[in-house]
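It would be a great kindness if you could assist me with a short task in structural biology. The full record is reproduced below for your convenience:
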Amino acid sequence: MRCIALATLIASTSSLLAAAPVTHAQDTGDWSFDPGALMATGSDLLRQVPAAQMDGLFQALHATAQDEREAQALCDLFDPDADRSLQGLNAVAAKLNPGGRQRFAAAIADALVASLQSPVQPYDAAQARQSLKAAGVTAALLHDGFVAGLNTSGRDPVSRQSRCRSLRWLLDAMQSRPQAERAAMTRLLLEQGLSRL
């Protein structure tokens, strides 16, 4: 799968070009990056992204969540069965307006480049889960309907909007935590979605 939305950013990163395969898109005449040739799963990427770049990805997610018109594409990313691989993240970026797309794609590209240059990062999933639950408690104290919205499982528009609103409140609560905690919580969310909160 060719990820045109990331192509310009990734192509401009010389360290990535040196390490990753590039293909030519015959239909557009542009160069594009094939993430499938780089790694088998998104979990490989997640395990190697350092905390600073993972937090950069969180900041892009949080900024996108502030825009009600674009938040639903982001919220769908955290459904239990969503594709949160590199391709899935790129699909979300493709649904955003140009400014949001650029911000989100830049964060993904930074995370990708950093993962290629880094070993597997230390990560305590149990501690990340506790931090995420603490952020959930904060969101529940600040916003009536947070828990009900988070527990909504329907696919109808009302259920999806309710779940998305709760996710946006959760991201707001995560924003107040230290960088290392934000990075760990983001890593957990990208691995598992909201299914275990």
User: Anything to note?
Assistant: The first strand starts at residue 22 and ends at 24.
